[in-house]
Amino acid sequence: MSRDLLHPFSIGALVVGLSMATGAVVGILSVLDSLSSDAVAQQVASTKLSLVWSSSLPGIPQFCSGAEPAVVYMEYDPARKTTSIFKSTLRGEEKLLAEVPGNADVRSLSCSQDGRTIVAYDSDPPMLFLLRDSQLATYRLSGYRPFARAGLYSFLSPDGQSIKLPEKPVLVSGPDLMADISVFPDEQHSVFFMEGHVYVDDAIGIQKYVPADGGWTKAGHEIKLPKDFSSTEIVRCGDHEVASLVGVETSRYMVLGDRSSPQDWLADIGVRRLFRRYNEPFLISGDYGTCAFPLLDRKHWHTTLGIARIERAGVRTFSLPYPEFRIANDNLSFSKDGCYLLLQGTWSGGVVSGNTHLLAVQSPECKR
């Protein structure tokens, strides 16, 4: 397999691709000085993002960081009826991690925060593929099990030690890597793993569970949901846990565990002010304690003018290297060091091709 990885040198410049060996991401890579965006984006953003590379990657690529940031993704080969799991470094060096039978669901690909544990799932027949370091284990489940996933850590926990499954799977081949992983038994509700606990949305409220005696037990009171709203994501933003709720036509956001405080943390740090200035996003996503959401044009709902990032100290905004990005995946993710952003979608006008874009943060703390 070969891919075209594109790197623009300036607005209007020639986009150059350099072919590399089969199975490798190709292109010329370097971090560029950020190019100016439109006037609207410049007014909102204080930190610039520059384009490192763009590529047409299969599936739903996501960060999977070990010693250094990397991106993982899957590709199905219909001729061979196999799914390949790839990892690409930020320099564009691609490596085949594993090849599994069948057509694994691209939505199921999940990676632990330390980058050591990667899982994927195939609904028909129901198979679980678990990769830890260089070892691959294959498991089967009984009966047809459709796959559903709400948030980034709705399948595999951030530490890679827990997984949501309807039952404990049976080992088919490889070492029994599930021996050290606990199963959260659920197939009907939206589940959100956090560090050390899990939230379950049962369509009425959000209940917290913690590990206890080899299983799980309820902790605290159930948080009631607004009528006709459900959770699409729950993430840790600094020292707070933020739930994204979606209704028929609107979204809402609540900080969990803030009952004792009369203040609204999202309002205090300026997030709700951005919601009023721009179109309210579908969800707040994130990882490693850093959250993000797109700054959407009020007139053109799918057009992204910039990015907002929620940090411990408050909210920070970023300008894009080109104006008017049409986002395809609402899950925005910064790398563990906070110096890179992975975006899926397209820029208007076709100035940059590809469906996946790696951007670098241009700030003193991210000097390379």
Description:
This protein is mainly beta and 368 residues long. It has helices at residues 39-44, 265-268, 271-277, and strands at residues 3-6, 25-26, 47-55, 62-63, 70-77, 82-89, 94-101, 110-111, 117-123, 126-132, 135-140, 162-165, 170-173, 182-185, 190-193, 198-201, 205-212, 215-224, 230-237, 240-246, 251-256, 285-287, 290-296, 303-311, 314-319, 325-327, 333-334, 340-347, 356-362. The strands form six sheets. A six-stranded mixed beta barrel has the order 3-25-24-26-28-29. A five-stranded antiparallel beta sheet has the order 8-9-10-11-13, with no helix packed on it. Strands 4-5-6-7 form a four-stranded antiparallel beta sheet, with no helix packed on it. The longest helix has 7 residues, at 271-277.
The first-to-last residue Cα distance is 30 Å
Could you tell me the strand content as a percent range? over 45%
Strand order of the largest sheet: 3-25-24-26-28-29
- How would you state the average pLDDT, rounded? 85
Helix content: under 10%
Which class best fits the helix and strand makeup? mainly beta
Shape: globular
Ranges with pLDDT <50 over ≥5 residues?
A: 6-45
**Rg estimate, integer Å:** 21 Å
DSSP strand tally: 29
Biggest sheet layout: 6 strands, mixed, barrel
Oligomer: single chain
Per DSSP, the total helix count is 3
Short description:
With 368 residues, the protein is mainly beta.
SSE blueprint and pairings:
Blueprint: E1 3-6, E2 25-26, H1 39-44, E3 47-55, E4 62-63, E5 70-77, E6 82-89, E7 94-101, E8 110-111, E9 117-123, E10 126-132, E11 135-140, E12 162-165, E13 170-173, E14 182-185, E15 190-193, E16 198-201, E17 205-212, E18 215-224, E19 230-237, E20 240-246, E21 251-256, H2 265-268, H3 271-277, E22 285-287, E23 290-296, E24 303-311, E25 314-319, E26 325-327, E27 333-334, E28 340-347, E29 356-362
